[in-house]
Amino acid sequence: ETRIVANFDDLPGCSNGCVIRVLASDGVNTGIGISHNFNVPSKVPSAEILFPGDGTTFQTQQLVWLQGHGFDPDDGFLTGAALNWESNLDGFLGSGDELQVSDLSGGAHVITFTATDAEGNTASDAATIHVDGSRPAMDLIVVPDGVPSRCVEVTIDATDEAGGSGLASVEYSLN
């Protein structure tokens, strides 16, 4: 090929020091061409939550493992303080591509993962997770009839406690 098209959207950004150098050879002789200095705009980073998935439910005090991926075309893979985790309920959770938390409050959390590059550009990803506040409350009322007791009526009252994710089912068995 005697011609190539470079896509600058795929190249890292640089200020006024960018040049293109071309070498062409016939096998014996080599010609060199150098462009004038030019700019390539810096790129914004990308952020992606790998785990937990949107809609995941955890129990109170359960260890929640947060995993994310941050990349910037100019800086490469982002790590440490360049990656931050936040909850809309509990605020700042920590930094890094992996974080383990076990003290999330009960309720629906929007977990936001933010990647910040060296120039201060940011990108974020978010996932909604649910942390159950407590187990459902259960009342069981048995009304006996006579001696020896013979059950004639049982009332089951199950309710979701504050911060719970709602009752999915109420089941019973009779032995």
Any overview of this molecule?
With 175 residues, the protein is mainly beta. Helix content is 0%, strand content 51%. The protein is built from no helices and 15 strands. It has strands at 14-18, 21-25, 30-34, 38-40, 46-51, 57-59, 64-72, 76-77, 83-87, 91-95, 98-101, 107-116, 122-132, 137-144, 151-159. Strands 6-13-12-9-10 form a five-stranded mixed sheet, with no helix packed on it. Strand 12 and strand 13 form a beta hairpin. The N and C termini lie far apart (82 Å). The model has no long low-confidence stretch (mean pLDDT 86).
| Main beta-sheet strand count, sense and barrel state | 5 strands, mixed
**What characteristic shape results from the CA principal axes?**
rod-shaped
- Percent in helix: under 10%
Helix count from the secondary structure assignment? 0
* Average pLDDT number: 86
State the end-to-end CA separation. Answer: 82 Å
Find the count of extended strands (DSSP E, 2+ residues): 15
Judged by helices, strands and strand pairing, the structural class is mainly beta
Order of helices and strands: EEEEEEEEEEEEEEE
Strand content: over 45%
Alpha carbon gyration radius? 30 Å
Unreliable stretches, pLDDT < 50, 5 or more residues? Answer: none
Biggest β-sheet: strands ordered side by side in the sheet: 6-13-12-9-10
